[in-house]
Amino acid sequence: MIDQSQSTSKEPEPGDPATGGPEIERAAIEVDFHRTRVGPGGGFWVLAEVHNDRPTPVDAVQVEVALVDEAGVTVGRAKGGLRRVIDVDESAAVSVLVEHPPLHDQLKVEARAHELADESAPTLPLHLEHAPPERAELGGWFVTGEVRNDGGETVTGARLEILGVDQSGKLLGQDWLELDPIDAGETVAFAVSELRYDEQPARLQLMLRPPKR
């Protein structure tokens, strides 16, 4: 068994706006704004959930946040997204970092995605087990567990997504852990710390995600 103990990444999962890739044709999909939380350097995170209401799977999800003043004028924008396939009727959490925000009165959040004709989300041959999350002595939360590769090949680039959720099912925070390569039949242990939220989470959700596209 290999041990992997580290803190999670606070960075969002970027779409092509963050990577400088070419723009592609996208269609509007549903998005539900949940809340904001303090970010680095005077900025803030926008936490939201996208829902694929298109008739096909989608990828290259792009979420745009518009900062609007009292007169209804857009005074700033920020973009983020997801770099994985979202199946039909599937929902996914997304975090967008708004850096150096100007004075504004409200936020408007929109989401668009690239429709796929004949592709679905990949199935990972991985099995996740974890202990109940616990409070850390110095604040925040931590969780330990393990991931087993039941497939016949090494899995490289898999990620662990950790969501803090309140009583109403709204996001409190989103964190990522990049897993080391896992050989066929191998089990990798992990310990994630520094999970902090603005209020007591009702639950923490841990999910395995495929490598970034």
Can you put this structure into words, describing what you see?
- Strand 11 (159-165) and strand 12 form a beta hairpin.
- This protein is an all-beta fold and 213 residues long.
- It has one helix spanning 16-19; strands at 2-5, 27-38, 44-51, 58-68, 74-82, 91-98, 106-115, 126-130, 134-135, 141-149, 159-165, 171-178, 187-195, 203-209.
- The strands form three sheets. The chain has a six-stranded antiparallel β-sheet with strand order 5-4-7-2-3-6. Strands 1, 8, 9, 10 and 13 form a five-stranded mixed β-sheet that branches.
- Helices cover 2% and strands 51% of the residues.
Which keywords apply here?
single chain, about 210 residues, mainly beta, Immunoglobulin-like, 2 domains, 6-stranded antiparallel beta sheet, 5-stranded mixed beta sheet, 1 helix, 14 strands, about 0% helix, globular
Brief characterization of the structure:
With 213 residues, this protein is mainly β.
Low-confidence stretches: 5-11, 14-20
Q: How do the helices and strands follow one another from N- to C-terminus?
A: EHEEEEEEEEEEEEE
The CATH topology name of the largest domain reads Immunoglobulin-like
Count of DSSP E strands? Answer: 14
- How many structural domains does the protein architecture include? 2
Helical proportion?
A: under 10%
Looking at the overall shape, the CATH architecture of the largest domain is Sandwich
Count of helix runs: 1
Query: Quick check: average pLDDT?
Result: 90
